[in-house]
Amino acid sequence: MSATAQGARRMPPGLDRLRGRIDAVMAEAIEALRTQGPEHEHPLIGRVYGWLRHYLDCDGKRMHGIAVALSHLACGGDEDAILPVAAAMQLYHHHTLVHDDIYDEDAARRGWPTAHQAFAGWFADRGGRQEGAGQVFSGGAMRRGAIAAFAYGKICRALAGRLLLESGFEPAAALDVARALERHEFFDNAAQLKDVFHEGDEMPSPQACLDNAWLKTGRLFELCAYAGARLAGADRRGTEALERWAGQSALAYQLQDDLEDLNAASEKGQGRGVATDLLHCKPTYLYARAKALAEGRDRESLLAWQAGRTSGLDRGDIIAILARSGALDDCRSEVGRCVERAGAALDEAGPSLRADWLPPLRDFSDYFVSPAYWHRPLAASRPAAALLA
Length: 389
Known about the structure:
Keywords: Magnesium, Metal-binding, Transferase. This protein is mainly alpha-helical and about 400 residues long. The chain has a single domain (about 15-385), classed as Farnesyl Diphosphate Synthase (Orthogonal Bundle). The protein has helices spanning about 5-10, 15-35, 45-50, 65-75, 80-105, 115-125, 140-165, 170-200, 205-230, 235-260, 265-270, 275-280, 285-295, 295-305, 315-325, 325-345, 360-370, 370-375, 385; strands at about 110, 110-115. It has a two-stranded antiparallel ribbon with strand order 1-2. A hairpin with a 2-residue loop joins β1 and β2 (about 110-115). α6 crosses α7. It is globular, with a radius of gyration of 21 Å. Residues about 1-10 have low confidence and may be disordered.
């Protein structure tokens, strides 16, 4: 690979530097929990605390934390001060993914075992029953692994709250951010409930899928931007511009995520497998657009797949229909429009944002949907048994 190609695959240096600093704060908080947390010497509880260490090694790019930090710096804030809040929002996001993996019964994320799979394996090694392997609520070791993972996610959430509340910012500002985070819980859970309601059922309209993508992803990034701006004492114009920038960047990411679900070389394909969303018939913008655009036998095949009548169809057939219908091209175009709207929000902010931080904000949006993000090689995972030894 040429030096130019290698550079194109790297995270922008300014973002990567923030990523490293956020990881350092998380590592310190995790080690304190592991060595001093309540009941840390218990054979299960200690391992639940210790499992957090894998999060530092699985090649995540900390985009939620970086959104907090960039927003704070763009409003004239101090980098050292905002890092605990950036780490808090990153851990909060991790907690949502842990529970999402349980709901979806995913076995892996970025090539590493999901929390419930890791703990199910640990319980099985201790002599737990293994019937219904892979099905979260099947009883035996899988059931106990799921319970351990739910608790693990709640611990991540509590650690995030502690980092935020102990960050040292002016109490009224920190309380505003904490309130916003609690409000977000309602939106996040509403999105999850809508997803499970529509899974394998009547597919919502493309716009309804976009709205739910905002609930799941866009709104949390808007909250990250709000946290950084509020804690820097930003004015309303700057705060709202950053919220729009973050929300549109995140919506672009979520749509790109739908596309990368079909790509074996992507982070999603490497880490979870190809077409996992398609196999579960998740209500995505991509699938909804295909259903709106496809005609004749192609449309009938999409409806049959959605209804679970898969005889004579496989994922390759459905992916081909997505391409023929124009839905893939349409989704790619919508990704570009979201990135353009993110940049326009920054243009409209005027002097409310520091000009020297606008380039990193734009780098963030571009990187989030780029091959450099989605097609990077992932860190090799270690067996869960070794991590939980």
